[in-house]
């Protein structure tokens, strides 16, 4: 009898017996000992708690009188000692004890035994309570292990943007975690993901072929149903087992299972948003797959992570393809512009050279009319050369911020003003500057910054009449984290209507109904350059008074440096 009572109980279980009567305790202990349960006794409510906390028993047998002594404090005791909530309690009731138990005691009672106690009944109920508790503990341990496995699977999904790698890591990990023999992942034709079917088979078993596209319609209908119900479904082949079948097994699985064999499992939908785009078939051979609410919830969770990962991977793949196409187009454009510029510069240089020689009289003296016409040709040749240079600058690639390096702006502006002195003097213009006597360093591409600043300075000189003034200043503001370069002139000014469009490509301002000279690309190039260096350019101007250009650039310790 004792051996039968102990069958199914894993390991040696112990007990604590509580009763006001020491004789009653001793009798209960003898019965438990005969059944293989070592026990300890407590005859007072105070001693009971100490014994339970010290012995950590697998079951507690407590007399009703002792239990009632704890009725008012049970909730506080369980809150203080959470392990008590999982301790199975068998309540020993008096022979005529049919009255209702207090509500505070009832939730903690696993079973009751009426007196007089018979050894067989006591051992049977003790064994059942211990076995039930051990099963619950095993389930909790299994659920905790499965949760950790699913967490690792989700982390591996998030660690890659390759859809094939996601699926290759997902299938074996989920299959082993759930104890399945086969996993089949069907992904349908959908704009969010690429269609594919993948399988996994456990070791030492023949592989299972993936379903074909002809099976997609039936699978899609099932996926829509499961997605709408937010549930999974069980299936089986061979002998019908209603208790483990919610849906019919798919035709492709029945064909592969063969006549007379039984294959069962669970199917769940895969998707995101309002519609699914796939199914996961979890398959077990011969015996039905164990499937609880925990397995279902965790599988649905990790399927959600897989669906999100596949969608993101598809988006990233499309973005990468678009970037590659754009890069190829940009390279083709740059190559084309470079070729055109090269092919145009050579004949233009030859034309400009011969024009200069003709105008200098190398080929003989020219009539005044011919000289005037050739001078017009020379001016337009210079404009065409300038236009080619601007187009080349606009089409050139922006340098990445990681390629920027330190640039001493004081030295750069000093060089530019030194070169512009001759141009200013030739037009009768005074060029002044006020620069710090120490280096002011920004992060950037020196050649690009030099070209952009030169455009601004050249414009100031070009549109300032004789006897005018051009001033270049640099204000260092370390507390604000930037430096400001100011170019101010006493030139003809810019009409208010043209100020908002100054930085548009090929826009040229008009003054007194006359379009100003130039091709309208310089300021567009300058703005593009300064913004690529995380800076700004602003212009203030008044007709007949002059123009002020302010360029702001972040200092080196406030800008990205390669």
Automatic annotation (TrEMBL):
Disulfide bond keyword on record: no
PROSITE patterns, alphabetized: HIS_KIN (PS50109), RESPONSE_REGULATORY (PS50110)
SUPFAM superfamilies: ATPase domain of HSP90 chaperone/DNA topoisomerase II/histidine kinase (SSF55874), CheY-like (SSF52172), GAF domain-like (SSF55781), Homodimeric domain of signal transducing histidine kinase (SSF47384)
InterPro entries: CheY-like_superfamily (IPR011006), GAF-like_dom_sf (IPR029016), HATPase_C_sf (IPR036890), HATPase_dom (IPR003594), His_kinase_dom (IPR005467), HisK_dim/P_dom (IPR003661), HisK_dim/P_sf (IPR036097), Sensor_HK_Regulatory (IPR050736)
Domain Histidine kinase: 339-557
UniProt entry keywords in alphabetical sequence: ATP-binding, Kinase, Nucleotide-binding, Phosphoprotein, Transferase, Two-component regulatory system
Protein name stated in the entry: histidine kinase
């Amino acid at each position: 009898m004792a051996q039968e009572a102990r069958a199914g109980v894993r390991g040696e279980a112990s007990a604590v017996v509580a009763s006001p009567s020491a004789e009653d305790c001793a009798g209960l202990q003898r019965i438990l000992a005969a059944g293989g349960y070592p026990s300890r006794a407590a005859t007072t409510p105070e001693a009971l708690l100490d014994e339970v906390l010290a012995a950590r028993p697998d079951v507690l047998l407590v007399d009703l009188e002792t239990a009632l002594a704890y009725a008012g404090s049970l909730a506080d005791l369980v809150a203080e000692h959470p392990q008590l909530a999982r301790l199975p309690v068998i309540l020993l009731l008096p022979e005529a004890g049919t009255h209702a138990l207090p509500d505070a005691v009832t939730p903690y009672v696993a079973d009751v035994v009426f007196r007089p106690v018979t050894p067989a009944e006591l051992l049977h109920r003790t064994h059942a309570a211990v076995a039930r508790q051990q099963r619950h503990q095993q389930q909790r341990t299994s659920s905790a292990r499965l949760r950790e496995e699913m967490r690792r699977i989700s982390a591996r999904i998030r660690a890659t943007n390759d859809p094939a790698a996601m699926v290759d890591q997902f299938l074996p990990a989920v299959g082993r975690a759930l104890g399945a023999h086969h996993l089949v992942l069907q992904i349908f034709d959908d704009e969010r993901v690429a269609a594919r079917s993948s399988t996994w088979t456990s070791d030492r078993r023949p592989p299972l072929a993936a379903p074909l596209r002809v099976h997609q319609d039936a699978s899609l209908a099932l996926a829509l149903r499961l997605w709408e119900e937010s549930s999974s479904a069980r299936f089986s082949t061979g002998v019908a087992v209603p208790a483990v079948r919610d849906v019919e097994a798919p035709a492709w699985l029945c064909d592969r299972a063969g006549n007379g064999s039984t294959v069962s499992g669970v199917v769940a939908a895969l998707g995101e948003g309002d519609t699914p785009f796939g199914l996961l078939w979890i398959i077990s051979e011969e015996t039905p797959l164990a499937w609880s609410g925990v397995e279902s919830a965790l599988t649905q969770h990790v399927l959600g992570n897989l669906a999100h990962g596949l969608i993101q991977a598809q988006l990233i793949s499309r973005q990468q393809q678009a970037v590659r196409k754009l890069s190829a187009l940009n390279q083709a454009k740059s190559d084309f512009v470079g070729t055109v510029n090269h092919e145009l510069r050579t004949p233009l240089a030859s034309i400009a050279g011969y024009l200069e020689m003709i105008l200098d009289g190398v080929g003989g003296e020219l009539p005044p009319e011919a000289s005037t016409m050739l001078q017009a040709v020379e001016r337009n040749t210079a404009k065409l050369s300038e236009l080619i240079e601007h187009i080349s600058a606009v089409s050139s690639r922006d340098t990445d911020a990681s390629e920027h390096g330190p640039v001493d702006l004081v030295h750069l502006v000093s060089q530019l003003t030194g070169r512009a002195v001759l141009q200013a003097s030739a037009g009768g213009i005074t060029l002044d500057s006020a620069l710090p006597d120490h280096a002011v360093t920004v992060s950037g591409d020196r050649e690009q910054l030099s070209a952009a600043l030169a455009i601004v300075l050249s414009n100031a000189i070009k549109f300032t009449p004789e006897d005018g003034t051009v001033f270049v200043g640099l204000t260092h503001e370390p507390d604000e984290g930037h430096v400001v370069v100011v170019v101010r002139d006493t030139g003809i000014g810019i009409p208010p209507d043209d100020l908002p469009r100054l930085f548009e490509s090929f826009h040229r301002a008009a003054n007194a109904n006359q379009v100003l000279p130039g091709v309208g690309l310089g300021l567009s190039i300058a703005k593009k350059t300064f913004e690529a260096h995380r800076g700004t350019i602003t212009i203030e101007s008044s007709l007949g008074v002059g123009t002020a250009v302010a360029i702001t650039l972040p200092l080196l310790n406030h800008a990205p440096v390669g």
